[in-house]
Amino acid sequence: MMPRWKFFLLNLSFLFGFLDALEEDCTDFEGRTVSHGLYYVPGPSACSLCVCYHSEPMWCRAIYCDPPYFCQRFRAGKRCCEFECLDDEPWIEPKRGGSYYAIASPLLTLGLAFLVWWK
């Protein structure tokens, strides 16, 4: 038969192991539960990505997103990489199809062909 103190220690170690397993989950910035070992956004900044490691954010990295290319004026949203365009009309980049490019492209092709032929 097992002595009482060994039985007590065995139960105590099981209890601590069970409580330790309960604390391995993390909570993201929206209040959702994230399992140990998974990537998540801890908050308060929505632009950092971390690994849930025993209920703590570890190995965090900042997330960088370029603003939309079609907006000259924009506002950052509540979520990471969320932008709101404030322009009245979408901005369109000027086209490169001008007369300079129309002439330069065939001349460049002919010049390269001449160099290949010359060697």
Automatic annotation (TrEMBL):
GO CC annotation, single: membrane
Keyword hit for Metal-binding: no
Signal peptide residue numbers: 1-21
Keyword Transmembrane: yes
Membrane-crossing residue ranges in chain numbering: 100-118
Alphabetical keyword list: Membrane, Signal, Transmembrane, Transmembrane helix
PANTHER family: INTEGRAL MEMBRANE PROTEIN DGCR2/IDD, INTEGRAL MEMBRANE PROTEIN DGCR2_IDD
Official protein name in the record: Integral membrane protein DGCR2/IDD-like
Species this chain originates from: Gryllus longicercus
